[in-house]
Design brief:
The structure is a homotetramer of 188-residue chains.
Chain A (H helix, E strand, L loop, with lengths): L11 H18 L6 H7 L4 H7 L3 H13 L13 H18 L2 H14 L1 H24 L7 H17 L3 H5 L1 H11 L3
Chain B binds a DNA duplex (31 and 31 nucleotides) through helix 2 and helix 3.
Chain lengths: 188, 188, 188, 188
DNA sequence: GTGTAATCGAGACGGTACGTCCAGTCTTACA
DNA sequence: TGTAAGACTGGACGTACCGTCTCGATTACAC
């Protein structure tokens, strides 16, 4: 079990510098405009070091974005029984997290990476849609509306995605109303 | 003021061949993998001819996709007064159009093009979100629920976008339920 | 048979600029230190343009050197019957051509290229050794010493090669004496 | 003054394995194609160990080649007084050594290394040209033809060099005749 | 008909990013 | 301290593609 690795160990410093540089540059210039040469230079790292750990620009961006940004989910872990309050709480938290940071821009980068790299797409789903769907499902099932769980998740994921993709801030602010409509529309 | 053009006129045949080749290749290999050299070869057209009509690969893809695919909207032109029936009709039509063809794949290409080219993004919004929002707004206002118009549009656009982006067929089939929830949740 | 080429024709300006830049940089920094990036920049040419016309750095250097430098041979075209005078004349001419210019440095570059690229080696032989051997052979045969032709060529080629490779100026100046020894040693 | 070394002593085994691996690989693939990674792997040695003994790839190749191959000279240590016999003896010995082994290929590697590394060039001259010149000079001076010593050395070095560089086997076999011409041409 | 001028297919051009490869250095654990 | 292993920075390599430019050939309109 000792595995006793041999040779120089991976430089955590380099890995973190690359991830940070990637985030900074993606935010500054957008996903498509960023090049690995720039990232390597900004991270003060050899280009080969990047390729040693990520097999493509897409995989790197997916990692860089997910590592720091994606924690939209873990709030609605235990439904309180009050569906409306649970959803509002979660949604407001998500909006806040998206608003304060440059998270939306990073998500867009992730979306672009997903278009090229299937693994990035899978990671994005796993980190974004799946937990959200699970949380929403738990909340709905605990209030006896389990049959609407998937639809509710569709709606919430879709609305957030749309607000991100289209850079539509008003839509972001209307998400609270979406929750109300959802709660009311799935009653009985 | 006649403007009487001189010289060889542009070839409509070439323009159409390019659009068709673009669609075919985007469907076959995806947006990122397609190159203008391939498109030009498939369309039996010189590369410069493409640039005479479109200023970039992104603009071309936007045109190619929008020209054929994007007619999600014109169905709900006149609200009948029955909100639920109007929305269902429109939504079922949209789903059908998305299901039978490779429309979803083309939308994804359009999304990718939008990430690089602002004009493509604007065109996508103009052709996809705006008409949808207008139609939904008209339907809601004609039934006295105008204050929910934007939210309803957010929800429908978002749900469709999500189904497209994530290639989630079940979600596509649940859109009818979304309409029901929406109608019920915005009552009174 | 007209061949009537289609497409943009090759840019002679670019070709000449690349060859000149190659010569300049090889003289300035030596063969091994020169990179195609530098050559492309100095010639104000795209890198791909170089690769379009030469399949490697070696082939380019061979071309660049041979294009301008290699005219050691054509002097001894018609043997006069006086072997000693013919050889001296040719040898002095060769030495002069090697001395005044940077020819020796270019030859060394060519030699280095030949080590990597067989085609370059063949071209070097064809342009340097073969004509020299032919001229020497003609001179020897016309004076009834044909059986020494090859040996004489070996000697003269070798002596010049050595003077080039080892940057041995005194050896260069002794070539006249070599001719005398050669003429005397092959008499009768 | 004891200098009493501390720590693990250097491994002579490693040094010899590196030299042997270098020779093998240079012979198998040529100088330019060989990499230090390959050499280290073949010698079952760490890469750093190589750099502890040699400061560059060129220095290593120079050492590897010279260590085994270069002993062209020591035969004509004491001139016998019979110039022709001395030269023939030496030359035949040299040819034999060059023919049986892969010495010519190794020389070419050495030549390539010399192009990059001045020290390698100096070592090559010291090991190849200088002793040869000394031996030839001794032989010529002991027979009263001292004034031809340098020229004779030029010729013999050049002829051998040419045979090596151009892979010209016939030229190698004509070296005996060169000696005859040289002896005859420098008489009186 | 003939001239003129813009378009056409073809393909080279400058430029730039990619992903690979290697040299020479550095950092581990082990001997 | 020397060693094998292997990651590190740095930078050249050769390929691919973009958007532009330059050919000869084509094609419509103006004369």
């Amino acid at each position: 079990m000792s595995a006793s690795r041999v040779g120089r160990p991976r430089s955590e410093r380099a890995r973190l510098a690359v991830l940070q540089a990637t985030r900074d540059l993606v935010l500054a210039h957008g996903y498509e405009a960023v090049t690995l040469v720039e990232i390597a230079a900004a991270a003060e790292v050899g280009r080969q070091t990047i390729y040693r750990w990520w097999r493509s620009k897409e995989a790197l961006v997916a990692d860089a974005v997910l590592e720091q940004t994606l924690s939209l989910d873990p709030r609605v872990v235990t439904p309180s029984g009050d569906l409306s309050r649970d959803l509002h709480e979660w949604v407001e938290d998500s909006i806040a997290r998206m608003a304060d940071s440059d998270a939306a821009a990073l998500y867009r980068a992730l979306l672009a990476a997903s278009a090229v790299d299937d693994a990035a797409a899978a990671r994005m789903t796993a980190a974004f849609s799946d937990p959200l769907r699970a949380a929403v499902t738990a909340a709905f099932e605990s209030t006896g509306r389990g049959r609407y769980a998937d639809v509710a998740a569709d709606v919430l994921i879709g609305v957030m995605l749309n607000a991100i993709v289209t850079r539509d801030t008003p839509a972001r602010e209307r998400i609270g109303v979406v929750v109300d409509v959802l709660v009311r529309g799935t009653a009985e």
